[in-house]
Design brief:
CATH class: Alpha Beta
Shape: globular
Protein name: Response regulator receiver domain-containing protein
Distance between the termini: 20 Å
InterPro entries: Bact_response_regulator (IPR050595), CheY-like_superfamily (IPR011006), Sig_transdc_resp-reg_receiver (IPR001789)
Strand content: 15-25%
Helix content: 25-40%
Organism: Daejeonella lutea
Number of strands: 7
Largest sheet: 5 strands, parallel
Number of domains: 1
CATH architecture: 3-Layer(aba) Sandwich
Radius of gyration: 13 Å
Structural class: alpha/beta
CATH superfamily: Response regulator
Pfam family, one: Response_reg
CATH topology: Rossmann fold
Order of helices and strands: EHEHEEEHEHEH
Keywords: Phosphoprotein
Strand order of the largest sheet: 2-1-3-6-7
Length: 121
């Protein structure tokens, strides 16, 4: 049996973190979550298979975190899906190196299909 894929959620909205975490666990993923974007950059081992980052987090811009993840050898190949309530940020998310973008409020089916797509590639 293969180990479940691990996904890290970083969002400062506890409602979103709880809902997404529940959905992902129901789908069989192992989930790590944080409401502090800086925690993402503190990971040294046990990296997730995919990052789900909010663009606007208190004190932290998810795009800066994404840029840093994409610079590091240890995390540059891990897919990053960025989420935001603002559609205007889709382009800047991609410029920061995000592999995908999802607008809030998002449809859980759409999120799950994007995650499956990036984990399959």
């Amino acid at each position: 049996m293969t180990a479940p894929k691990k996904i890290m959620i970083a969002d400062d909205d506890p409602g979103i973190v709880d809902a997404v975490e529940m959905m992902l666990e129901f789908e069989g993923y192992e989930v790590l979550s944080t409401m502090d974007g800086a925690k993402v950059l503190e990971l040294r081992d046990e990296f997730p298979d995919l990052f789900l980052l909010d663009i606007w987090m208190s004190g932290q811009d998810g795009r800066d975190i994404c840029r840093e993840l994409k610079k590091r050898d240890s995390t540059k190949n891990i897919p990053v899906i960025m989420i935001s309530a603002s559609t205007d940020l889709a382009r800047s998310a991609r410029e920061a190196g995000a592999d995908d973008f999802l607008e809030k409020p998002f449809n859980m089916d759409e999120l799950m299909s994007k995650i499956a797509l990036h984990l399959a590639s």
